[in-house]
Automatic annotation (TrEMBL):
<dbReference type="Pfam" id="PF13639">
    <property type="entry name" value="zf-RING_2"/>
</dbReference>
<keyword id="KW-0862">Zinc</keyword>
<protein>
    <recommendedName>
        <fullName>RING-type domain-containing protein</fullName>
    </recommendedName>
</protein>
<keyword id="KW-0479">Metal-binding</keyword>
<feature type="domain" description="RING-type">
    <location>
        <begin position="148"/>
        <end position="191"/>
    </location>
</feature>
<keyword id="KW-0863">Zinc-finger</keyword>
<dbReference type="InterPro" id="IPR051826">
    <property type="entry name" value="E3_ubiquitin-ligase_domain"/>
</dbReference>
<dbReference type="GO" id="GO:0061630">
    <property type="term" value="F:ubiquitin protein ligase activity"/>
</dbReference>
<dbReference type="GO" id="GO:0006511">
    <property type="term" value="P:ubiquitin-dependent protein catabolic process"/>
</dbReference>
<dbReference type="InterPro" id="IPR001841">
    <property type="entry name" value="Znf_RING"/>
</dbReference>
<dbReference type="GO" id="GO:0005737">
    <property type="term" value="C:cytoplasm"/>
</dbReference>
<dbReference type="InterPro" id="IPR013083">
    <property type="entry name" value="Znf_RING/FYVE/PHD"/>
</dbReference>
<dbReference type="GO" id="GO:0008270">
    <property type="term" value="F:zinc ion binding"/>
</dbReference>
Amino acid sequence: MAITEVVKVEFKERRSREISGTLQVSYHSRYQKGHRDLEGVLHKDVDIRTCSRPLFSIRAPAELLLLPAYHQHHAYLSHEVATTLATHLNLDPQMNHFVTLQIASHATNFMVKTHPFGYSIKADLELLRFVESVTDNDDDEDVDYGACPVCLEDFSSTVGSRMVMTDCSHYFHKSCLLPWLKKQISCPTCRRCVVDIKN
């Protein structure tokens, strides 16, 4: 089983008539699970996206919007974004650094383009977690997986139902796990978070 975590950033920007710089950051999470069959074809089993939520807002001081100060503007935003992201989201340090640089660089480049005016930028982060499993051979038919913890039906008695496994190694019917994950982002068995986000 392979687990991949990615952060994507989408920007919406507009020029401001005032000499001010505003950066609003929001985020949503996305959980995808899939498997590769023996021919190497990837099949998506689960794709759940949460609604976008505001995370934080930063207003750059007006003196940092003057063109000679754009290096200070970048340093200021880098520090503020890195500190605030680390407070709100549980990203590994390298990913936090990458996202911070992406946001600060984008804001600074847009600030230079809009000079002598200010800017307003909205950055939406997508925290994507993709879990991929490989379908082994047909020997799995001899393994007893027990019962689905959600519907309590034995896996061997539900012919044709798709079985999925969480990253904490618990098995469920796909038709049982999907509705559960739309309401809660935790494993129904051990309550471990499927998508690790700090509030």
